[in-house]
């Protein structure tokens, strides 16, 4: 028990309840039972071995096409945009891929694979520690990291030789530099531009390059600057190349490649309409345009709710809920968004689930159960994206519905919880003001530090404004001593 004159330790930092991990595991167990145990062990008398990744003849096929296109442009001046299904990257990507031409294609594939794995570790483990302002890896963070490491989207990403993880890694590195090292903000802008030029969709993360949501003039100025620089980067190889790329992108938007692994809203609606037409329900295709607009409005609404909550709460640093919403919008809105783009979702999901959430307001018990239900729904939807479409029933083979459910669940959590903002650091927590005991004007507050010295006054202790129950006995002892001191009167 603390003695009079000693310092009571400060209350602990707010943290997510340890029991929440159980509910996350419950959410993961549902897809595990439905999309792993059932199709592999329970669907036939013998164990099934489905080919979960749609492999092609040669591994790293997308990388090989990129290198072949870059070589043709560099040596012969061949136009790269002759087929939107083969090559559909901004012109600067040709320049960035030139160093890989110095090595053989198999060596280039090894380099890209190792770099992608390094980017996965960077965005799922290292950067969340920096952006979340915590110094230790939580069990939940490690769980998200390990499950994503062996999941179908990452395998698909590596098999194709894609570089989505590299682009997102550069983008998150830019966001981290922007928020933690403001004097290097131009380096952050450069990294962000390179990320956008690798894959166009990272531009939506410009919403994370905001320090003060109330300073709308500076935010609009920054948005305009980055948009202008990214448009200017399209002309790095000349206006003809830029215009050809814009025409190619327009053609891809109007006629995307539709298959089960394209989880974009346009591809999903087109696939459902085609399935309905094959079964004689041709009238469904007449409403495909309205269906796309409705789903886009749902995504915009979910993103808008989280943006409004972010503006209202004015958090400092990276907001995990906004990061998650931008990530989901980035993989749903583009007309072509294959399943390998889902490999980077482990980063926003880990940050979102690892942040503290408080339950406040009327009927807290009901709010707690609603919150836990949303967490289970969110994690179950996310976990379903870790399994290949070959293991799922036809109605949910495409990942678009699961991604929309994740966004709606995140928006609902943002509405019902009072705190969905970055965890405060130790330095940001204000020191509690000492409370004087009634009728004891001669108290000298003891500093809230670790090096304690005996006070010079008869009763030189402080009582925290709100101390945990385990300090109740010490508080009562302090009040009793103060009463006795007041009764005995001044000492000679």
Characterize the structure shown.
Helices cover 55% and strands 0% of the residues. By secondary structure, the chain is mainly alpha-helical. It folds into 2 domains: 407 residues, no CATH class; 55 residues, no CATH class. The radius of gyration is 28 Å and the shape is globular. The two termini are 30 Å apart. The N terminus is likely disordered.
Largest sheet: none
Topology as H/E string? HHHHHHHHHHHHHHHHH
Query: Could you list the spans in which at least 5 consecutive residues all have pLDDT below 50?
Result: 1-18, 420-473
Total number of domains: 2
Round the mean pLDDT to the nearest integer and report it: 81
* Oligomerization category of the chains in this entry: single chain
Instruction: Report the sheet-strand fraction.
Output: under 5%
Structural class given helices, strands, pairing? mainly alpha
The total strand number stands at 0
- Please tell me how large the radius of gyration is: 28 Å
Helix content: 55-70%
- Terminal CA distance: 30 Å
Number of helices: 17
Shape: globular
């Amino acid at each position: 028990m603390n003695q009079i004159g000693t310092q009571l330790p400060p209350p602990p930092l707010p943290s997510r309840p340890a029991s929440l991990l159980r509910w996350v595991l419950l959410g993961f167990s549902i897809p595990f039972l439905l999309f792993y145990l059932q199709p592999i062990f329970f669907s036939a008398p013998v164990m099934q071995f489905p080919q979960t990744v749609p492999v092609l003849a040669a591994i790293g096929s997308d990388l090989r096409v990129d290198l072949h296109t870059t070589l043709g442009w560099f040596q012969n001046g061949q136009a790269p945009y002759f087929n939107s299904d083969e090559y559909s990257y901004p012109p600067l990507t040709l320049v960035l891929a030139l160093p890989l031409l110095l090595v053989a294609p198999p060596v280039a594939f090894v380099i890209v694979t190792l770099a992608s794995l390094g980017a996965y570790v960077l965005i799922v483990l290292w950067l969340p520690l920096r952006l979340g302002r915590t110094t230790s890896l939580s069990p939940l963070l490690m769980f998200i990291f390990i499950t994503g490491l062996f999941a179908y989207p990452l395998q698909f990403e590596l098999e194709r030789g894609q570089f989505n993880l590299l682009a997102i890694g550069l983008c998150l590195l830019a966001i981290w530099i922007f928020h933690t090292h403001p004097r290097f903000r131009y380096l952050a802008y450069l990294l962000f531009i390179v990320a956008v030029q690798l894959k166009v969709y990272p531009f939506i993360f410009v919403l994370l390059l905001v320090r003060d949501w109330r300073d709308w003039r500076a935010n609009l100025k920054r948005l305009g600057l980055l948009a202008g620089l990214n448009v200017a980067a399209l002309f790095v190889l000349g206006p003809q190349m830029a215009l050809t790329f814009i025409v190619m992108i327009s053609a891809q938007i109007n006629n995307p490649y539709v298959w089960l692994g394209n989880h974009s809203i346009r591809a999903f609606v087109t696939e459902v309409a085609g399935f309905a037409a094959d079964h004689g329900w041709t009238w469904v295709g007449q409403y495909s345009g309205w269906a796309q607009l409705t789903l886009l409005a749902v995504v915009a609404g979910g993103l808008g709710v989280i943006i409004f909550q972010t503006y209202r709460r004015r958090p400092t640093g990276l907001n995990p809920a906004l990061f998650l919403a931008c990530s989901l919008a980035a993989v749903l809105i583009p007309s072509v968004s294959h399943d390998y783009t889902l490999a980077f979702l482990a980063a926003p999901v880990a940050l979102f689930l690892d942040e503290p959430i408080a339950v406040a307001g009327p009927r807290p018990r009901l709010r707690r159960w609603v919150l836990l239900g949303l967490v289970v729904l969110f994690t179950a939807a996310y976990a379903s994206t870790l399994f290949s479409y070959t293991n799922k029933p036809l109605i949910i083979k495409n990942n678009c519905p699961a991604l929309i459910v994740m966004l709606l669940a995140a928006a609902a959590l943002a509405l019902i919880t009072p705190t969905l903002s970055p965890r405060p650091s130790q330095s940001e927590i204000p020191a509690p003001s000492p409370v004087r005991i009634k009728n004891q004007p001669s108290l000298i507050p003891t500093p809230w530090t670790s090096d304690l010295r005996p006070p010079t006054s008869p009763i030189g202790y402080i009582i925290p404004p709100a101390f945990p129950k385990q300090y109740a006995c010490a508080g009562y002892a302090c009040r009793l001593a103060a009463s006795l001191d007041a009764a005995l009167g001044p000492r000679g």
